[in-house]
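Friendly challenge for the regulars: who can give me the structure tokens for this chain first? No prize, just bragging rights.
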Amino acid sequence: MSPVIHEHARARLVTDARDLPVVPVELRYDSSDTPATVRVAYPGGTEWAVERELLERGLRYPVERDGWRIWPCGRVQLVVERHDAAGVDVVQFDSAPLVRFIRRTHREAPAPEATRA
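First reply, four minutes later:
Bragging rights claimed.
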């Protein structure tokens, strides 16, 4: 059984407010469940499931797919925008915890193209 990888991070909820509210989130990866997916759990039970590869590419350059827009914001932050029937959510993360988390997930379960040698 593969271990589940957890990383705690903070997210800034992007709103019209002058000061962006900061909330704790838990990043989770379970290669035995959904090896291509990273889960972001917010307080109150809200959870996002985003492709690991999309999140990783978004750390380097703007990407967009299936209602997700992800892009680097300067050198140390990442913006994740999620569109669904309920509206749009925009969250800003510090990049360092995400990079650390993604590296850990690759040690557990390398991307498919990395295993085809």
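The first strand starts at residue 4 and ends at 13. The helical segments are 52-58, 95-108. Your move, everyone else.
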